[in-house]
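fyi for ur records
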Amino acid sequence: GKSDWALSAPGPIAYMNFDRNEEAVLWKYSKLKKIHQSKYDYPVPKPGLGTADYTPVWEKIVRDYNAALAAPEIRTVVVDTNSEVHMLIRLARLGKLANIQPFNYQPVNAEYSSFVERAKDTDKNVIFVHRMSEDWENKLVGGKLESKPTGTFSRDGYNKIHYLVQAMVTHSYDVENGEFSIKVEDCSQNMSVAGMTLSGDLCSFSQLGMMVFPDTTEEFWK
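which gave:
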């Protein structure tokens, strides 16, 4: 439901698509608004690959993102998902995802933060979609240390992105009622909406927009 919700934002939309399973959602919204789609191909990380294998795709991401932010006709930019963006900048700058010293992350995190915050200098709605990953913990079982899933999930990607964005929502699906919903976790634009939930027909970008900015109408967000 995350991509569906993101595409309910005002069009025209620049859709940076890292998830190739969204054809049905794109088709539905393309009948309602103009969507400019960019796709990204990159090799699966494995030993033997390095920065040269990922720098070209990272440079394309930056070009597309900057072009979307600069285009007068674009009202919304959707990065789907930002989990891949964070992965690709690390691969482009460090060549790997594990066994990296903390001090090596500093320039990468600074560049990534600049990438995200560039949106604040524009009049665009910019939505960074994230996946969720299951949390694991190490437990001693029969004298041996084993990794076990905890049954809980955390946002996949840069763990401090909530400090960079102006609002953060989490999505969920109620299997019993067959309803999607979003919960506003934080909102620097209007802290009074933090903790509120929008479900069913209210689970749309326009409803969130009107909640954050009470003086606006639904038509403004279409």
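The first helix runs from residue 2 to 6. thats all i got for now
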